[in-house]
């Protein structure tokens, strides 16, 4: 039996869960809500596993499988289908989405219990998972765009989940509007593609593009730039990164699922999916690398100065996606997807553990008011440590090392890479270590500053996901070992059925060991430095911060390089100013004019309704005469 | 047999139609309006006859029979309506029958 026919059920389960919860949720008991919300994702995850095993053991022809459910619409030959497409790339994505979502849902059953809107939360989350699965399984860009907007909508709804607080509503609107800028670029790119190919089927476009377009053609440059605009908005990269730190206003499981593991990596997926186009536009691909590099550095420095635990993680997410963009930009496609997967594991873990900490601290987000939680919350501490190790890429034992090291090596050794790209990533890696262990030491070491009232460690539903994700954050890296030691690369071998292998400059493999050694040195140096500054001699960091330069830097980084202030001056203020000097928009006068004219004509005509039948008859006679004379004389 | 040109032939129905039309427009008594309408109908029937003799086709004459039958039925209905109107309003003056007019537009 062909299990791939069941592929449609993978997104169908979350959709069914959403519909049940949305339609009947208010009548359900909270236990039933939790079962439906989590169970629907669980069924998807099991089915994905089954399909995945089949895919590995009995792969379909050419490692791709297409399932057309029905034709969406058909206009003059342009007929996008509701069609799913499974290949190694989408398989990796649905695997990560369903499994990480399942554990986050499980966590949420306990985490969200005391909240009103329990059913609303799970309904939105299921809708999100459905949209995300549609996004990665779509076989044409229009369906992908539907999923793309669907996840954007759910992101908006969930950031503003606690809508009674005005700040959350503001953060939700900000996220929606900023990503909308990227989405607009994205859809213009789609229009260009339709104009050229008369189809949005991804595989058709990828096959025809090299035939139609020569490398560096103007059209392909524009298309890739516009698609990159969409990816930049969704993945919170420079210059549209400002929405993600504010998006932390949502509940922590939302941050873990949407703003760390899945949705924000949709941009990476889009670029990897359309990699043929980017290969045709080397200049834009270089731009991708530069955007990634700048973002990872800017976000890394910003994370260094944050006090809010979730904001540190948010900036860290931006920074890690910057690494993925860097990998995409140097043609290390598989490395980007590998880092996406590992990042999904450890960043979801970090957010969930942070959620537990914040819950124990009664909604306290400031890490400097926590401290000393190591003994009181051992499970949270150890899993958080594993996640931090993966984020900081501690050599050999953590998965983050294998994925990030691959990106750094490719940034150096790929034919599109260079020493400068590597150096930027290398500095970024050092900053990553600093802010990661600053966060660990300040939160879990030192003296306890606040008593724990309700210890979330008693909640099994919250601790199991932490442990599972911690295990994945360690063993996940073993499926792709560095070239220097072993030629054991099943992950990239699997993906090369979709994505081309990375082209390395000659004689580079010998230098990989050197680079790894350097990375290892800075990781341990970074850990030692943060241990020194935040555990051994806390006065050290305080004294540095009190110098005028230190204070200026701290403020600058704390405000995320002042991007919010810059955009406020550049865009928000002028718009507000225009709307203030022009409260009655002059364009409205045109439309109001149409309305007034209609009222006038109507008043004129209504005068003819006199009530005299003979008057009406005269009008009819005149009308007939008029029409006849038109026919006869004109 | 003297053949009369078609344009002259058409003169009679035209004059009849105009008389009917003016009758409908000028007369205020509904019964006279009905009669004037009958004149217009017969003018139209006359045009059919002229056409029929011009093209040597029987269709036009068939149409006239139709018109006569229809006119008979229409007069029956029309007279019944007028009778009803007279019973309700005690008048057959068409200018006084203004119930369907929208009152709000008058001012």
UniProtKB/TrEMBL annotation, chain A:
Residues 72-122 form the NADH-Ubiquinone oxidoreductase (complex I) chain 5 N-terminal domain. The keyword Ligase does not apply. Residues 138-432 form the NADH:quinone oxidoreductase/Mrp antiporter transmembrane domain. GO terms for cellular component: endomembrane system; membrane. InterPro entries: NADHpl_OxRdtase_5_subgr (IPR018393), ND/Mrp_TM (IPR001750), NU5C-like (IPR003945), Proton_antipo_N (IPR001516). Gene3D superfamilies: 1.20.5.2700. It is found in: Endomembrane system; Membrane. It is a multi-pass membrane protein. The keyword rRNA-binding does not apply. Its main location: membrane. Keywords: Membrane, Transmembrane, Transmembrane helix. The chain crosses the membrane at residues 6-26, 33-57, 77-106, 118-137, 143-163, 175-193, 213-233, 254-272, 284-305, 312-330, 336-358, 379-399, 419-441, 461-479, 513-535, 615-633. One of its GO terms (biological process) is electron transport coupled proton transport. One of its GO terms (molecular function) is NADH dehydrogenase (ubiquinone) activity. This is NADH dehydrogenase subunit L.
TrEMBL record, chain B:
It is found in: Cell membrane; Membrane. Its main location: membrane. InterPro entries: NADH_UbQ_OxRdtase_chain4L/K (IPR001133), NUOK/Mnh_C1-like (IPR039428). Keywords: Cell membrane, Membrane, NAD, Quinone, Translocase, Transmembrane, Transmembrane helix, Transport. The keyword Ligase does not apply. One of its GO terms (cellular component) is plasma membrane. It is a multi-pass membrane protein. GO terms for biological process: ATP synthesis coupled electron transport. The chain crosses the membrane at residues 6-25, 32-55, 61-83. It holds the Pfam family Oxidored_q2. The keyword Cell membrane applies. It catalyses: a quinone + NADH + 5 H(+)(in) = a quinol + NAD(+) + 4 H(+)(out). Its EC number is 7.1.1.-. GO terms for molecular function: NADH dehydrogenase (quinone) (non-electrogenic) activity; quinone binding. NDH-1 shuttles electrons from NADH, via FMN and iron-sulfur (Fe-S) centers, to quinones in the respiratory chain. The immediate electron acceptor for the enzyme in this species is believed to be a menaquinone. Couples the redox reaction to proton translocation (for every two electrons transferred, four hydrogen ions are translocated across the cytoplasmic membrane), and thus conserves the redox energy in a proton gradient. NDH-1 shuttles electrons from NADH, via FMN and iron-sulfur (Fe-S) centers, to quinones in the respiratory chain. The immediate electron acceptor for the enzyme in this species is believed to be ubiquinone. Couples the redox reaction to proton translocation (for every two electrons transferred, four hydrogen ions are translocated across the cytoplasmic membrane), and thus conserves the redox energy in a proton gradient. NCBIfam families: PRK05715.1-1, PRK05715.1-2. NDH-1 is composed of 14 different subunits. Subunits NuoA, H, J, K, L, M, N constitute the membrane sector of the complex. Belongs to the complex I subunit 4L family. This is NADH-quinone oxidoreductase subunit K. It comes from Thermoflavifilum thermophilum.
